[in-house]
Amino acid sequence: MPSAHGLPSYDELPVRAGAPAGASWGVWDDDRLGCLNLLTPERALAGIACARRGRVFPLDLDLAEPDPPLFGRRSPVHEVLPRTALSSDDQVLFNTQTSTQWDGFRHERSPVHGAYGGLPEGEHSIDRWAQRGIVGRGVLLDVARHRPVDAAASDPITVEDLEATMAAQGVAVEVGDVLLVRTGWLSWYRGVDDSTRAALPGSLRAPGLARGEAMVRFLWDLHVAAVAADNPALEQYPMARPTDDLANHPELADPAASAAVSLHWNLLPLLGLPLGELFDLDALAADCAAEGTWDCLFTSAPLHLRAGVATPPNALAIR
């Protein structure tokens, strides 16, 4: 059934002739923005209304965290360049996905259908997001406070977990919200010793959103503008991706099959839903729990990087 606000439900997709099953291609006027099209001026004002006390919570980690980096990425290189006796410049070489990040639509293409909207990959770039900014109402679902999460294991956070957390917090997710999910992974990471951290790149197991079409349907039918979490991959890790040539897996054209392998393949190239990883949500969560409210003004200023694949979010939550 269509939603009350006129957006198609997941089961009504696709709306464009010839688009893949489970794809939102053609829902928006600008497919380069995907679900960020939901961040209307009205949603910005709804976010501003959540800034009741003026408390500011930066959500980005240090660019050098985690240390060592995960997924084979390189540590940033920072060089201070003296110019004169009284002035200096600096330059930084860093991977935009080593630390807190938004995954852009260039980051993951469908193994069968290509980039979001059927557009050439070069049409998707983080600078499109930077040109409009990301401002709206943020809602935190503190799953780790609601139920024990095994931060050292691939503990799936299910649709039922998210719904139960919303009910326990007494919070509703509205169309165009930025959904923030706390798994507790960063709290765990901060508490382990150096040897455990050093071993993570080769042995990482982490909690996250449960794979499967039920999660994809749930997130789309919430009609959030973006979703972010405090874990390394948003979804549970490791993923279940085939180890051989993806061309040998035509079954991945089925959205249910691809969602069982990796949520990234459905949320980014099919639904156009921006994904955030390694967001620092601990201080925000503590304040939300103390006040008994779970919303905030959420702002993010992506890097204005032409042809960029991903970006540090430069994100703030204001309450």
Rounded Rg: 19 Å
Strand content: 15-25%
**Widest sheet: strand ordering:** 1-13-11-5-7-9-10-4-12
- What structural class do you assign from the helix and strand content? alpha/beta
Separation of the first and last Cα atoms? 35 Å
Number of domains: 1
Q: What would the average pLDDT be, to the nearest integer?
A: 96
CATH-level-4 superfamily name: Putative cyclase
SSE string: HEEEEHEHEHEHHEHEHHEHEEE
Number of helical segments with 4 or more residues: 10
**Low-confidence spans: pLDDT under 50, at least 5 residues?**
none
Shape verdict: globular
Assign the CATH topology. Answer: Glucose Oxidase, domain 1
**CATH architecture grouping:** 3-Layer(bba) Sandwich
Largest sheet: 9 strands, mixed
* CATH class term: Alpha Beta
Give the strand tally: 13
Helix content: 10-25%
Describe the structure.
There is one protein chain. This protein has helices spanning 41-48, 126-132, 143-146, 159-169, 185-191, 194-203, 213-222, 255-261, 264-267, 282-291, and strands at 56-58, 77-82, 88-93, 101-103, 134-142, 156-157, 178-182, 208-209, 226-229, 275-277, 295-300, 310-311, 315-318. It has one domain: Glucose Oxidase, domain 1 (3-Layer(bba) Sandwich). The mean pLDDT is 96. It has 319 residues and is α/β, with parallel strands linked by helices. The strands form three sheets. Strands 1-13-11-5-7-9-10-4-12 form a nine-stranded mixed sheet. A two-stranded antiparallel ribbon has the order 2-3. Strands 6-8 form a two-stranded parallel ribbon. The longest helix is centred in the middle third of the chain and has 11 residues, at 159-169. The two termini are 35 Å apart. Strand 2 (77-82) and strand 3 (88-93) form a beta hairpin. It contains ten helices and 13 strands.
